[in-house]
Automatic annotation (TrEMBL), chain A:
Pfam families: zf-HC2 (PF13490). It comes from Pelagimonas phthalicica. Residues 8-28 form the Putative zinc-finger domain. This is Putative zinc-finger domain-containing protein. InterPro entries: Znf_put (IPR027383).
TrEMBL record, chain B:
The gene is sigR_2. This is ECF RNA polymerase sigma factor SigR. Belongs to the sigma-70 factor family. ECF subfamily. One of its GO terms (molecular function) is sigma factor activity. It holds the Pfam family Sigma70_r4_2. Residues 98-150 form the RNA polymerase sigma factor 70 region 4 type domain. The keyword Endoplasmic reticulum does not apply. One of its GO terms (biological process) is DNA-templated transcription initiation. The lineage of its organism: Bacteria, Pseudomonadati, Pseudomonadota, Alphaproteobacteria, Rhodobacterales. InterPro entries: RNA_pol_sigma-70-like (IPR039425), RNA_pol_sigma-70_dom (IPR014284), RNA_pol_sigma70_r2 (IPR007627), RNA_pol_sigma70_r4_t2 (IPR013249), RNA_pol_sigma_r2 (IPR013325), RNA_pol_sigma_r3/r4-like (IPR013324), WH-like_DNA-bd_sf (IPR036388). Keywords: Sigma factor, Transcription, Transcription regulation. Residues 12-72 form the RNA polymerase sigma-70 region domain.
Amino acid sequence: MSRFENDQERLSAYLDGEMTPEESREFEVDLENNPELAEMAMAWADTEEALRDMVPTPSKDHLESLMVSNTSRRVQPPWMQMAAALALVAFGAAGGFGFGEWRNQASALEQQAVFDAWAAHRMFTAENRHAVEVAANETEHLQTWLSKRMGREMTVPQLTDHGMVFVGGRMLPFQDRAAAQYMYENAQGQRMTLFMTKLDEAGQSVQLYDTEQDETVVRWQDGEWLFVLVAPIARGELSPIATGLQDKLV
Amino acid sequence: MSRFQTQLKDSLPHLWRYAYSLTRDSYRADDLVQDCVERALRKKSQWDSTRGLKPWLMTILLNLFRDRYRAQVAEVAFVEDYVGGAEDTRWEDRAKLREVVQRLHSLPEGQRQALQLVAFGGLSYAEVSDVLGVPIGTVLSRVARARASLSEVREHRKPELRSVK
């Protein structure tokens, strides 16, 4: 008689420390004598590891900073102050940037990068002869040059699988550092911009989507690097491309 | 420091990891935790101090998450390709990770909720039963079924296309 209905429940309870010492001992004996059970335990252990890796753990300091009372934030959230400040600097002319949902704690630098990426996209995709500084036929040179300036391997991700052909790239100034821009084009003549720059703090984020005027803007952070992808392509279509890029840019 | 404060501080890592597992984004997790702490402090008197603080906090956080993101469930679900906090994992591990992530989010809701509270929230089965309002035996069977689905060997796995630089 047991409160467990099957081996799956036993293994789960075992992993979660929900067994009595006696149940544990019994289970361990079974593990040794039953290869099938042992195999299952191994597979589950892999899953446990994946679950652990799936979620980062922030530093103690960071966590404790979240404990600070939010009362002041409610009155005037820091992001609102930040947004107000930025609106004067950058967003004024654009008539307010539409990243409505994106507020909370994106750093000012990150916000600026996303805006600059979008602005660069607008400016350079409209160009014909001067769309890029270094064209695709000089890809190798572009890679070497930008790698040096950016301090990161700048291999151009090829996206022909997604119907996107590399047009070329350029370096852009971004605050006190360099940013790189790669441009792609599809058969319909739609152009897509990948903007890359370094942030001050390492982090990790999922792909976050926004729409600004006619463009979909996707951003994600990987370590110190922020990637921003801008294209006049609907989110559903852009998503696989962004994912393809993310894979190649690791 | 009061017992409340101490327990609150001790719960933060689990609370944050749980929030991250729900939102899949650091900023959103920060936001949820911060709001959860704020609400907990405001409603401190409602906490039944004979019970642990952590399950109570998780309940608040889950409610906040539901209020805030229910309308956007589609949006949150959209980001299915995240690789979480694994910064230095090798490719094969990332592939495995992706797979587990995808499977986790296609689990039946009840199973996923139970597993998230256990695996990320660090709650015991009894505590999860409290938070979700289901019997402890149900928690056990949901967690077990969830783990089984996540660990199933995928027979017809397509070779994944990975770029070669």
